[in-house]
Amino acid sequence: RPASPPESRSLSAPLSSPTSSPRTKPPAALHPEPPSRGGDAVAGVLLLRRAGPPQHRSAPYSSLPSGPRGREFEAYHCGVVCAAGGTKYATTAETLTQREPDSMLAAMFSGRHTLPQHPTTGAVFVDRDGKHFRHILNWLRDGAIPTLSESEYHQLLREAEYYQLLGLADYINEKLALKKTDNSCEAELTRKDVIKCIQAQKIRFRGLNLSGLDLSKLDLSEVDFSYACIERTNFSCANLHKAKFRLVEAAHSTFEQANLHECELTGANLQEAVLDRANVQSANLQDACLMGCSFIETDVRSAHLQNANLTGADLNGANLEGANLKGAKLSGANLQGANLQRAYLREVDLRETDLTGAKLGGANLLGAIR
């Protein structure tokens, strides 16, 4: 059995004075209670142990008032051992109060209330299942929880709502919403299904979800993808001649070296898509979102790009000869070495566009801002 800590000495009293007034011993140090052999661990029990003089920036331990109110202040600074679901966790009252100051746990261990405790063990009983208490503690310590299944997220959400941990509840709701979004982005067809479909005379994938599929090197000419979701889909080296992509969601998709000659892409969302070295000649990209797209060395001759948003797009070395860019947004676009001969750039703002080495011979720049 460990010896009791030595009595503290007052700095104002003589060290050898035998008649000095009796001194109060500091409380025993915090020690986790050894596992019970009788199986008395109860889910949801918080065991509060008195600790020694805390090293804290607030008032010294000796200045704490005596009696019940003093024990409340003492509880704020001392350690806490939580027994949940048969497993004990060591933490501090500060952990339970800092991250979620408006929660039930923060109110319990704030020092403002006298907690009902077991007369011998000092346990504070909370009538809840302690299965997810470790996740709650990790959230209060680090502001993070591990990846869980959807059912586990729902169970933890109920615990967060009970303890009034609003930040944790919001975090879980965001995770659940993200899971729903991820599930909604799953493709409705496989590559094999698509190959079977394209053997028919007239092919339509209107409004289907084909996100994430590998459709590279397939002959998809004249296929109707209008209104479809094809985000992160791979069309590399595919033949898409005269295919229809009207109002599709194709962000982050790849069309590298694909044949998009005379394609219909009106109003399509191709944000951050890759079209490097593709053939986009005479394609219709009016009102399309092409922000952050890569058109490196792409053939965009005679393409229709009226009112297209090319903000931050990379058209390094692209061939835009005869392309119609009236009203297009080119802020931050890279057109280094691009061929813009006979291109229609009327009323286009080119002030933040890099035109280093670009060829502008015969281009219509009437009303353009440079």
From TrEMBL:
Biased composition (Low complexity): 1-28
Pathway field: Protein modification; protein ubiquitination
Domain of life: Eukaryota
InterPro entries: 5peptide_repeat, BTB/POZ_dom, Pentapeptide-BTB/POZ_domain, SKP1/BTB/POZ_sf, T1-type_BTB
Region (Disordered): 1-42
UniProt domain BTB: residue ranges: 78-180
GO biological process, one term: protein homooligomerization
One Pfam family this sequence matches: Pentapeptide
Protein name (record): BTB domain-containing protein
